[in-house]
Amino acid sequence: MGHQWKHNGEEEEGVMASDFFWSYTDEPHASRRKLILSKYPQIRQLFGPDPFASLQIAGVVLIQLWSAAFLSNASWLKILIVAYFFGSFLNNNLFLAIHELSHNLAFSTPVYNRWLGIFANLPIGVPMSVTFQKYHLEHHRYQGVDGVDMDIPSRTEAFLVRNAFTKSIWVIMQLFFYALRPLFLKPKPPGLWEFVNLIVQVGLDVGMVYLWGWKALGYLMLSTFVGGGMHPMAGHFISEHYVFNPNQETYSYYGPLNLMTWNVGYHNEHHDFPRIAGNKLHKLKEIAPEYYVSLDSYRSWSQVIYMYIMDSTVGPFSRMKRSLSVKSNSKSE
User: Fold this and answer.
1) Briefly, what is this protein's role (predicted)?
2) Do 295 and 268 contact (CB within 8 A), yes or no?
3) Rounded to a whole number, what is the distance in angstroms from the first to the last CA of the chain?
4) What gap in Å lies between CA 178 and CA 115, rounded to an integer?
5) Cα–Cα distance between 95 and 97 in angstroms, integer?
6) Helix 53-70 and helix 110-121: axis angle, to 10°?
7) What is the dihedral of CA 147, 264, 93, 157, to 10 degrees?
8) Residue 115 is inside which H or E element, if any?
9) What angle do CA 91, 92, 94 make, to 5 degrees?
10) Beta carbons within 10 angstroms of residue 208's beta carbon
11) 95 neighbors 125 (Cβ within 8 angstroms)
12) 235: helix, coil or strand?
């Protein structure tokens, strides 16, 4: 099925659009998954959890908490520098570990993944693992669907972010937009697990302040904030689905930072097969290369951030959207 789209707000070349790209077909991953499985049924053998995920997560959590305690008497300048060049990498690793766990890719039993996600959440400083899973699974099931996929910027964001300066501010603050957007546009009532996540996280934060002071907690919070802004690893937020080629809505990254990010860069592969753990996504590409080598991809997340800021035609409107009716019609076919 061809990819039909329309960009209603593209007025002239070199000018940023005033509307999203609108697709009149379903997202590409479900159909490609069927094609790949029909040709390479052995790919099913890649499905399932990563048996070493829990050990990796435990190691990163302990290192980050130890680092926070170690820096409790340091100057704020030193804390900021260490947070940017060290702690941010660890907290990004944990955020993307939570992404893995949202797909139950550490244990076969879902509740074990949820507990591990709450544990992985600890150095991030704010409770988010349980809520993230709710919205993230919708992002997969309803990719690009207007009013459902909260990965897409709001129209308010898109109308306010119109030039290199405002895009730079948006990139620095994108973690706040990413976290707060669903709470304003599509709030979900908290359940028992959100309260568990909150209680455990507040307990850790209070304990850090009580034992090692505000600087220890400040280091953790700064590691999260700076790591989610103008930072190489934060480039994945933009690279995954921001449209630089109108005929493609998901993009992979095949650079060295995949080693620290659970291979989240293999993003086309991940959306095609979310049941394959990050440590095996490269094998999917090796088995079925003809489905991926022709797609646009990246080698540098830093370059993606630079292109996003400096390209006058690219901004928050550079996302593919579709109506829920398009999704519903594709399911009925």
Assistant:
1) Sphingolipid-delta-4-desaturase required for the biosynthesis of delta-4-unsaturated sphingolipids and derivatives.
2) yes
3) 12
4) 23
5) 5
6) 20
7) -30
8) helix 110-121
9) 65
10) 24
11) no
12) helix
| pLDDT tens-place string over residues 231-271 | 999 999 999 999 999 899 999 999 999 999 999 999 999 99
Tokens standing for residue 303: 């370059």
d(CA 51, CA 263): 16
Angle of CA points 270, 271, 276, to nearest 5°: 40
Of the candidates 330, 328, 327, 331, the residue with the CA atom closest to the CA atom of residue 144: 327
Q: What is the pLDDT of residues 70-98, one digit of tens each?
A: 999 999 999 999 999 999 999 999 999 99
The two tokens of residue 137 are 């699974």
- Report the pLDDT value the prediction gives residue 116, as an integer from 0 to 100: 98
Please give the sequence-ordered ranges of beta strands (E in DSSP) within 196-302, or none if there are none. 252-253, 297-298
Rounded Cα gap, residues 99 and 120, in angstroms: 10
> Could you give the CA distance from residue 266 to residue 314 in angstroms, rounded to a whole number?
22
**Which CA distances in Å does 313 have to 4, 68, 308, 319?**
21, 41, 9, 12
- Calpha distance 169→99 (Å, rounded): 25
pLDDT in tens, 140-177: 999 999 999 999 999 999 999 999 999 999 999 999 99
Mean pLDDT across the chain: 94
- As a residue count, the chain comes to 333
| Cα–Cα distance, 182 to 228 (Å, whole number) | 17
Q: 189 phi and psi, to 5 degrees? A: -65, 135
